[in-house]
Amino acid sequence: MVERRKATTKTPEPPQELEISEDEQWRLINETGILKEAIPRRNTATLDSEDTPLAEEIFGAVTLIIPFSFLLFLFDILIHHQYGRQPTFGEFADRLIPSVPILSVFIFYTTRYKHTRKMQAFFFSLSLIIGPRMLWLISRGSWLVNMQQCPPLATIWVYTIVQLDLLPAVVGLTVVAGWVKWQGLKFTS
């Protein structure tokens, strides 16, 4: 028969902890230089545009250019149907081919600096200029002027509100609504 041996392993004793004073710990940390090598954390709100690679800026702009180009196209379709016109594909192409590159450049450069105070002030003032102009045209403009000016104005107005911080966007929309009420503009027949 097989004899079994008893395991003669000793249980290891726990290592004794060394008591190092806090001053000694800091001295060791400073001697190693580990704190100097640590990567400093930066606040994301203070990042400059140089910190973002160009590819990310282009991707961020494209994610806005595509929907706003389709929004411009949609507003163009809606204004034509509002006045009972049936435009051809060529009329849409003649209208959108020059408009989309201009819109793309505008979106790319404004997206790059949208977090700065100057750009927020620009968006706010632009929304206060474009919003009342478009609403006045819809209420009192001729149908031909409305078909030419309202789709780009509506697209830029929506874009400025989207890019604004929440408080300025709400204030801008409230000011425009107050102006519409003060002017007594009617949008229904």
Walkthrough of the structure:
The chain has one domain (51-183). It has seven helices and no strands. The chain has helices at 22-32, 34-37, 54-82, 89-112, 117-140, 143-163, 166-183. With 189 residues, the chain is mainly α. The model has no long low-confidence stretch (mean pLDDT 85). It is elongated and about 105 Å long.
Please sum up the structure shown.
This protein is mostly helical and 189 residues long. The chain is 69% helix and 0% strand.
Strand element count: 0
**Portion of residues within helices:** 55-70%
The domain count comes to 1
Q: What is the number of helices?
A: 7
Low-confidence stretches: none
Percent of residues in β-strands: under 5%
**Average pLDDT reading:** 85
Secondary-structure element sequence? HHHHHHH
Decide which structural class fits the backbone. mainly alpha
- Biggest pleated sheet: none
Rg computed from alpha carbons, rounded to a whole number of angstroms: 32 Å
Separation of the first and last Cα atoms: 108 Å
| Coarse shape | elongated
